[in-house]
Amino acid sequence: MTAPAAPVKIRLREVRKAFDAKVVLDGLDLDVLAGESLVILGGSGSGKSVLLKHMVGLLRPDSGTVEVDGVELGGLRGPDLTSFRRRFGMSFQEGALFDSMTVRENVAFPLQRAKWPKERIAERVAACLEMVHLEGAESKMPAQLSGGMRRRVGFARAIALEPQILLFDEPTTGLDPVIKAVIDELILELQQKLESTAVTITHDLASAWKIGDRIAMLYRGRILACAPPEEFRNSGDARVQQFIRGLPSGPLTET
């Protein structure tokens, strides 16, 4: 008997976004299923980060709709939107830490903004740092951390408010292969512990195969393909195959 399909957590329909004359998203449709780890691939400048920011409401589409748990983000304003965003935990490229704050203060920042009591903040910060295996690093400054450690602090901050949805923006860019593997394992570990939905954008194929339940490819403002890893690998689309194989010649480079 076939298992029932997971409900849709995030739904984007006919989403269009342009910056001046440059169209970045062009009628994009995408469903993110509850509890899955979705990886979005695409070349540099393809709009992956713009897409992620639409999911959390940091950007609004010029047209089209973005729904999370059936709620259209376009209808939320002010405190309602701020409250809704707490369903998300977002890890930005290279951690995006506050350089003037300690590790402890960086992780505590979203909890303080949410007006958690000091005692609960201390407990939650300790728990989050334990989940990313950074016990003992609380008093360090970002400048004292390696690239991989900075990413892990960023993850700890992202999970501080116990989000339902985790968004990872290029989490392994600039890291060596061993640290990349550590970060990939941590993404899977955090998603399982929090029982969350995860969306990761990357151009790192090794990471995509490892962490993705489904893989989507963004091309010219639309989702070109979206499928489980093996099906994605075997796609008959020449553009997908050129991207996967890293070929210099093909439809991606002919236009």
List keywords for this structure.
6-stranded mixed beta sheet; 255 residues; Rossmann fold; 10 strands; 4-stranded antiparallel beta sheet; alpha/beta; 38% helix
Walkthrough of the structure:
By secondary structure, the protein is α/β, with parallel strands linked by helices. It folds into two domains: 33-59 and 72-87 and 165-255, Rossmann fold (3-Layer(aba) Sandwich), CATH 3.40.50.300; 95-162, no CATH class. The protein contains ten helices and ten strands. The chain has helices spanning 48-56, 78-85, 103-113, 118-131, 147-159, 177-194, 205-211, 229-233, 238-245, 251-254, and strands spanning 8-19, 22-33, 37-41, 63-68, 71-72, 88-91, 165-169, 197-201, 214-219, 222-227. It has a six-stranded mixed sheet with strand order 6-7-8-3-9-10, sandwiched between helices. Strands 2-1-4-5 form a four-stranded antiparallel sheet, with helices on one face. Helix 6 links the parallel strand 7 and strand 8 (197-201). Helix 4 (118-131) crosses helix 5 and helix 5 packs parallel to helix 6. The protein starts with 7 loop residues before the first strand and ends with a helix. The model has no long low-confidence stretch (mean pLDDT 92).
